[in-house]
Amino acid sequence: MTIKAVIFDLDDTLYDGDNLTEFALRQAVQAMIDNGLNCNLEQGIERIKEIINEDPIKDKFAELARSFNQEDIDIINEGKNKYFNSDFDELKIYPDTKEVLEKLKGNYKLVLITQGAVEQQNRKIDVLGIRDYFDFVFISDIGKKREDFEQVLKILGLNEDEILVVGDRIETEIKIGNELGMSTIRLLKGKYKFLEPKSEDEKSDFEIESLNEIYNVIINLNNSENGKDDGNDLRKKLKIVAIGGGTGLPTIVEGLRKYTDDLTMIVTVTDSGRSSGMLRKELDVLPPGDIRNCLIALSNSDKLMKDLFQYRFDNGSLEGHNFGNLFIAALTKLTGSFELAVEKASRILKLKGKVLPSTFDDVNLCAELEDGKIIEEEDNIIDRHNDNVYLRSKIKKVFLRPSACANEKALTALSKADLIVLCPGSLFTSVIPNLLVDGMLEAINESKAKKVYVCNIMTQVSQTYDYKASNHVGKILDYLDGELDFVILNNENPGQDLLDSYANENAYLVENDIEEVKKLGINVIEGNFLDDVGEKKLLWEKKDLLRHNPDKIAEVLVGLVGD
Fold this sequence. Notes:
CATH class of the largest domain: Alpha Beta
CATH architecture of the largest domain: 3-Layer(aba) Sandwich
CATH superfamily of the largest domain: CofD-like domains
CATH topology of the largest domain: Rossmann fold
Number of domains: 4
Number of strands: 18
Radius of gyration: 26 Å
Strand content: 5-15%
Largest sheet: 7 strands, parallel
C-alpha cells in the first residue's frame, strides 16, 4: 500500500518541550505547596525531577505527594491542573518542523493528535504557528488518544497500512498505531527517548533523530510491495562509504546514517598533535582521535556513553586528554591490536555501520612546500600556533613516510559501494592522506559507485589559504588520479560576525568559481548547505564553527544514487 496520511503527535515531536516542561513543573509544584504540600519549591522540584528520571511514565504528581507523606487527592489534582494549564508565551519549535510539514502538505493528509487540556494544547498549536498545515486537529483527554486514532480512520476512509504515525512516546501513539496496523516512526527526542519498549506493540517500525528523515521512510514504504519489513530492507541495501578525518567526516555521516544501515567510514590515522599525538608517541599506538569522533557519529548507545567518550580532562596530569582516546589506547594495549580495539569499541558503542582506519601501518604525513622545504608530521604541517603560517610557502604536495598498505576491509567496502563520498575537512591532512595509502586509489577508481566530493566552506590558513573551489577540486583530482562524478558547493553566506571571527585567523569563505570547476569535467551541485551554528554539536569543542548541514547534504547525496 502507499502512504496517504501522516498522524503527528505534538509535544516533543514538533517542538522541544524541555523549557515548557521546566516552567510547567515549577508552577505545578508551587500550586501543590500552596494547597498544603509539605515542602519548599526547590525540594519539590528536585524530587519531581528524580521521579521523572526514574520513570517518565509514572504519575509524577501522585508520586511527589507520596514522597512527602501526603496523598491528598486535592493536592495532586491541583498540581495536575496547573501543569496542564501552565502559562507560556513562546515555544521552541524544532528547526525542520515547518519545512517538513510544508513539503508533506498537499501530498498527504496531515493529522495532529495530541492530549491534554484543550485550551493549553490549542494555545501551543497557535504559538507554534502550525495549525494551517493540518487537515484535522484532535485534542484528547489523557488516556483517550486511541479513540481519536480510530476516529481518524473513519474520517479519512483509508486502510490502516496507508497511514504513518510519528511520535515520541512508545506507550501511547506508537503502541496505538501498531495495534491498529499503521506504520510507526519513533522520534528520538525529548524526555521519553531513553525508554525501552516493554512489548512488541511498543516497538516502532522506524526510529529517527530528525523530522527530515520522514521523507526517506515514506519513500521506502511507498516503494515496498510487501509492507513495512520491505521498507526496512530497502534502507539496508544502500552501501555508502565516506572518506576523511577530523570533524568533517562525522558531520556528513551524521546525515547519511539516517538513510542506510550499511555505512562505512574510512578514516585517516596520520594525526600527530594534541591528545592523539601524545598517546601515539608515548604509548606507541595509532592516533585514536579521528577514530573516536567517527565511532561517536555511528553510535547507537545512550547519551551518557557518547558524552563519556567525548569528555576531555581540563586539569591535572590528564589535562587535554580525551577519555575516548585513552579508552581506545588502553584497548589497543589490552588486545595487542588497534584493529581489535576499534572493533571492541564499536560493539560497546553499538555502532550502526563500520569505522575502518585506512591503514594499520604507523606512518607520518609529510609535505613538500613550493620553496622545496620538507615538513614532517601532520601537526607541523598544520602549525597551529604560528599566526603567520599563511605567509609560509604553499604546499606543493603531501606524501606518506614510510609508505602504507591499505586496510583490506576498507578496500572491500569500496568495491561494493553504491556511493563514495570524499568529505569536507582539512584538505591535505584529513582527506588526501587516505588517498596516499597503497591500494586506495585503485579501489576507488575501479568501484562502480558514484563518487562525490563535498567541498569545504572555509579556507584553512596553513593548507588552503586563497584557495577557490576549483583549487580544492583540482587537488582532489590530482591525488585521486581518476574521475569525480559530482562536487557539492555551499552558496549560503554566514553571518558577518562569524566571517570576521574567521578573518582574524586568516580564513575566508571559499569562492565558488563554478565555471572553472566545470572545466575540470565535474558536475556541480550548488545550494544552501550551511548548518545552524546556534545549535551545540557534540563533536565540536571549539568556538562557533561553520559546518555543513548533515541532513541537507545527505538528502542530496542519497538522491544521486541511481541517477
